């Protein structure tokens, strides 16, 4: 998926870009290697930042990537118009105020700057089968994904327009995720049924997500 994100961002070589929710650094490394980007990578979980720094050092990219503890809800440390690009990969779903975050992204981008978001949206859960809707609500709650709960189809596109972004394009690339979803489903389905039998599935949210992401693939999109 890093390749798809890189193609969507399309910043010139050497651009300064923000990785808003870098995890352990794999996407930042891809971006630096393929775009010769100067990457400012932030993440809200300190232990992930430590791992990211280790991975960046192993890739010998300390000169290109800076990983630091940070929250994309609070970007005051960055000057207005100081980035050529901003991207997220499955991190905006964790936002408590996605509209405000997108406005902050707009502020730090230079005129003509680019943004690329790889996130999920979905049909309204009121249209989903009861079991699937309940499972998705459980995952959203336990995995701290409040924005994902609100990302009905095309909501994210509307939020981008409201934040001032122009030429907003939405691409459904869900087909690229199906092999991974099938693999995760195979890994998770037997443990999930055991956990469900004992009524403890809520303590194993990744297992629940592994099962229902595949079972619910007809009502959600990866965009």
In short:
The chain has helices spanning 2-9, 26-35, 46-58, 98-108, 130-142, 146-150, 155-162, 178-197, 205-215; strands spanning 16-20, 38-43, 65-69, 83-89, 109-118, 120-122, 220-222. It is of the alpha/beta class and 223 residues long.
Structure description:
There is one protein chain. This protein has 223 residues and is an alpha/beta fold. The protein has nine helices and seven strands. It has helices spanning 2-9, 26-35, 46-58, 98-108, 130-142, 146-150, 155-162, 178-197, 205-215; strands at 16-20, 38-43, 65-69, 83-89, 109-118, 120-122, 220-222. It has a five-stranded parallel beta sheet. Strands 6-7 form a two-stranded antiparallel sheet. Helix 5 crosses helix 9 (205-215). The termini are close together.
Largest sheet, if any? 5 strands, parallel
Q: What is the radius of gyration computed over CA atoms, rounded to a whole number of angstroms?
A: 18 Å
**Proportion in helices:** 40-55%
Number of helices: 9
Q: Could you give the distance between the termini?
A: 11 Å
Shape: globular
Provide the fold topology.
Elements: H1 2-9, E1 16-20, H2 26-35, E2 38-43, H3 46-58, E3 65-69, E4 83-89, H4 98-108, E5 109-118, E6 120-122, H5 130-142, H6 146-150, H7 155-162, H8 178-197, H9 205-215, E7 220-222
Parallel strand pairs: 1-2, 1-4, 2-3, 4-5
Antiparallel strand pairs: 6-7
Helix pairs in contact: 5-9, 8-9
